[in-house]
Amino acid sequence: MNQDLIPSSDEVTGIFEPVTSNSARGLNSMRAEAIRKKASNETQRAWMSDWKVWLAFCHSGCLDFEHYRGLDPHDARRLPLPADPRLIQDFITYFSPPIRDKKGRLDKSDQGPKAHKPYAVATLNRIISTIAKAHELKSYELPPEELSGFIPNPAKDPLVTATLSTCSRYRKKQKQARPIQWKDVYEFINTKIPPEAKLPNIPEYTEEKSDLADELKTEAHWIRARALITVAYNSMARREELVSINVNHIHYENNDTCAALYLPITKGDKDDYRHLSHYAVEELRRWIEVSQIKEGPVFCKFQSNGKVCLRSKRRGPFLEYGKQISASEVNKIFKACMAAIGRPDDIIQGISGHSCRVGAAIDLQEFGATGPQIQDAGGWSSPTMPNRYTRAAKTQSNAMAELTKRQQDMITE
User: Fold this and answer.
1) Among 57, 77, 238, 411, whose Cα sits 20 to 30 Å from the Cα of 282?
2) Spatial CA neighbour of 141 closest among 67, 221, 81, 210
């Protein structure tokens, strides 16, 4: 391989890092910066994390394979960028869980080195897409005369796609977040806050679930949780979007009985408006009144003394109002809400920050909303995820379900 095409270690490590005009990676890197900036912050963090996994494999993980031992780290067969498709294939084999047949027996053909903790198929697909994105960004940095010798996307090599396809066919499917549907939300917001304002039956809970009690340990915690879960359900917002909601993002309508929620930044870097029902508006008003929040983030943290953290720190002549809850805290609050209404352990463990988003999509499907309507309500850029969330609910309205209903009506007549 042309040695000029082999990037330095700094270039390989920092392929997803922000670039400035004064960067050591040079002015050519600014061409790829527009592509990188288009992605959301969450996507950029995922790129960085995935890229570290790939670099670690190229540096040491691949040495578990006998055919890489003795090769120089700068050998083209071990380079992370540009990558050899055979190296990517070995990466998939190394991190994929063992293949089992329908009876649970190991496939004898699936032999070779395996990582201590295998990845889910969806995670492997994401890492491979990150490798492809790195090659895309690098191709924008190269002069036109050098592009002919550079592999633009080794992830599309038939060797790689066939290996990924095999993983997807025989491996266990990815678990979906447990949905929080309207019946769950309604039950929680109508649950009477206990006198001690804590989760009931705490002694029966495991240590992990006892930690959830901190999310509902005072009446103010309960009121915040009610506002958060109703807003999350109505807006179908992602957890990062929820924690970034400010007071001035809520625009009341129809005599203040409902509202339009403005989301300045979404996953696709597009601002959007979402509907809030009178239930959400009522809970929001109660929370804002109790917390005395007048500006800044709506969903703020609590201080150790139990009061809402309205001011986090002073920065220059301006006060930074409100210390917002973290995205991971949204998960805990939703789990605490489900524990408060007596949901079993297996459901609580499956709850995530996207559970209200999933549950709202299912409710819309059962209500009769079309695919584009659900996609628009949740701000999805493609129908892939809403179709995945609602595919089980769709079985209740397909042709066989309608036939069954008619047959049942004929029997009862």
Assistant:
1) 238
2) 81
